[in-house]
Amino acid sequence: MRLEEYTRLLCRESGPSGFETAAADKAEELMRPLVDEVRRDVMGNLFGLRRCGKPDAKHLLLDAHLDEVGFIVTEITEGFLRFSAIGGVDTRMLPGREVTVMGEEPLYGVIDCLPPHVLTAEQREQAIQIKDLYIDLGLTQEEAEKRVPIGTPGVFRGDLVSLQGDCISGKALDDRLCAAVLLSALEELKGEELPWDLTVMLSTQEEVGCRGAKPGIWSADPDWCIAVDVTFARTPDSAEPGTFKAGTGCTIGKGPNCSRGITDALIETAKTKNVPYSIEVLPGNSGTNGWIMQVSRQGVATAVVSVPIKYMHSPVETVRLCDAEAAVRLLSEFIRGGALK
After folding, report:
1. DSSP element (H, E) containing 191
2. Range 3-68+171-337 classified under CATH 3.40.50.2000
3. What is the C-alpha separation between 234 and 244, in angstroms, rounded?
4. Burial class (CB in 10 A: 0-12, 13-18, 19+), 290
5. Is the per-residue pLDDT at 256 higher than 90?
6. Cα–Cα distance, 316 to 172 (Å, whole number)
7. d(CA 146, CA 124)
8. What is the CB neighbour count within 10 angstroms for residue 233?
9. What integer is the mean pLDDT of 268-283?
10. Residues 125, 128, 133, CA angle at the centre, nearest 5°?
């Protein structure tokens, strides 16, 4: 299966932090043919293990998170839903957005948006706050109370769309794109002898503080781990330091969250195998699960590999597939090389 198809199938599912079951179910279905063993833990993390068959084998873990940003219903007023954000949602782009409310059956709605004709000059200058917004499902108060219990989650609505060239755009590319990268790497390595045991962890609740990866890395107990996440692609209005031109490959992190041995081995792999990459300087918290995994147990040698995307945490996250394919190649060749001891 191609990387793009994995991505489409995963992004189609609704799974904000704490409510990832549908995304995990789809990921498990896709993962099962590629690994020896599949399991989930109490946090909902999904693990796929490929055994190398060697005694006392070392163990590498690759992580990508399954959750996406979203919202949760807090109140119903005249059939309209009040809500709070799950994860880092930018309120500026909420008015007029289409959403999926995750009731017993999916309910499609829109976030209310006052037309500009009725706004005062002062209102047009004010920042919008979530507390002032509602979701309109077209329901009466009685219908809404029956079909949407308080605490019902939801996400942005939409499937992936193809733009020009090899660009795709949609919701949940952060970080289901990288979950698809890991599935593609497993597919690439299928049937090959591995130098170490390999676990792919598709983790939960990253968007609310790396909550799934923390217990997940403890139960997996690897010798090394690589957090695979998205980073910032450059746009004309973005600051150049810390952003990366789309189409130039994946990124390899350097900084205190990135252990030297495994990071240097990834860089050497990229050079020798002609995988396009950039160095991403991470002077502190990488903003990925790698930050928490590195200090698990007695410490785990950790690296961070990222794929640049535009418009992060929006319903129109956009990526060039060639950058994600570079990450697939980097990870596959790194594992084949067996450079770590």
Report:
1. none
2. no
3. 5
4. buried
5. yes
6. 9
7. 35
8. 23
9. 97
10. 140
Q: Are strands 135-136 and 153-156 parallel, antiparallel or unpaired?
A: unpaired
* Residues 26, 2: Cα–Cα separation, whole Å: 16
Domain boundaries, the chain: 3-68+171-337, 70-156
- Please indicate whether residue 28 is annotated as part of the active site: no
Bridge partners of 279, per DSSP, are 252
- The C-alpha torsion from 266 through 272 and 278 to 280, rounded to 10°, is 20
Q: Which residues of 67-97 are buried (b: 16+ CB within 10 A; e: fewer)?
A: bbbbbbbeebeebbbbbebbbebeeebbeeb
Measured distance CA(145)–CA(31) in Å, rounded:
38
Are both 3-68+171-337 and 70-156 of the same fold? Answer: no
Cα-based distances in Å from 12 to 110, 169, 176: 18, 12, 10
Residue 125 above 80 pLDDT?
Answer: no
Mean pLDDT confidence for 167-196? 96
Residue spans of beta strands (DSSP E) within the chain: 37-40, 46-50, 59-65, 70-77, 80-86, 98-102, 106-111, 135-136, 153-156, 161-162, 167-170, 197-203, 224-232, 250-254, 277-281, 301-309, 317-320
| CA atoms lying within 13 Å on the CB side of residue 120 | 3
b/e per residue 137-169 (b: at least 16 CB within 10 A): bebeeeebeeebeeebbbbbbbebeeeeebbbb
Question: Smallest Cα–Cα separation from 311: which of 205, 214, 168, 178?
Answer: 168
pLDDT on residue 93: 87
User: Whole-angstrom Cα distance, residue 210 to residue 221?
Assistant: 17
pLDDT tens digits for range 46-89:
999 999 999 999 999 999 999 999 999 999 999 999 999 999 99
> Of residues 13, 68, 206, 280, which has the active-site annotation?
206
Q: What is the pLDDT of residue 305?
A: 98
What dihedral do alpha carbons 208, 219, 228, 46 form, nearest 10°?
-80
The verdict on whether omega for the bond into residue 36 sits within 30 degrees of 0, i.e. cis, is no
Residues 70-156, CATH architecture: Beta Barrel (2.40)
